[in-house]
């Protein structure tokens, strides 16, 4: 039997990546990245609030820098949270010169900046290996997609840890989910906000 993940009481079978989807597309993505062995490197929960250690603060700051570092990708950050042993975040890849040139512009309805979601029918949750050996697909430059964003983020946090002799490591893989409508966006946004308060019930709790 294939390994299955449970999220919101729904079981899904993870795959290496969604093969028919261009991860540089104009769309909204929910990502989850865990630390190696789910060690509590980032901090701890006290009174239902996240208390960040130094490396947790670095992770937060490096994520906030993402749109500034990649201005040509037209990125917008939604809600995110640095938890003791994982990171949740919503990120929007807007229309840019790379995804419009290769014909991946989506028919989206932009209500406002933080509720921009793709209205495509396809929805998927995948587990992706964020390494320099990412599986190539038919969709254009691999340096201008979700994997490259995650790769850069993880690398910056790891580099800081190594330079400052801080014990730290990432899990090699990450989870991504394409958000398809406003209702789903708001549900995931609430999940992120309430994550610290619900920590004992979280599937990453240990």
Specify the biggest β-sheet: 5 strands, antiparallel
Our count of domains comes out at 1
CATH topology, by name, is Alpha-Beta Plaits
Spatially, the strands of the biggest sheet line up as 6-7-3-9-8
| CATH top level label | Alpha Beta
Description:
The chain is an alpha+beta fold and 206 residues long. It has a single domain (14-197), classed as 2-Layer Sandwich (Alpha-Beta Plaits), CATH 3.30.70.1290. It has five helices and nine strands, in the order βββββααββαβαβα. The protein has helices at residues 54-64, 66-69, 97-101, 146-163, 182-194, and strands spanning 5-7, 10-12, 27-35, 43-46, 49-52, 75-82, 86-93, 125-129, 170-179. A five-stranded antiparallel sheet has the order 6-7-3-9-8, with helices on both faces. A hairpin with a 3-residue loop joins strand 6 and strand 7. Helix 1 runs antiparallel to helix 4. The protein starts with a strand and ends in a 12-residue tail after the last helix.
Question: What can be said about this structure in brief?
Answer:
The protein is of the alpha+beta class. The chain is 25% helix and 26% strand.
Describe the structure using short key phrases.
206 residues, 5-stranded antiparallel β-sheet, disordered N terminus, 5 helices, globular
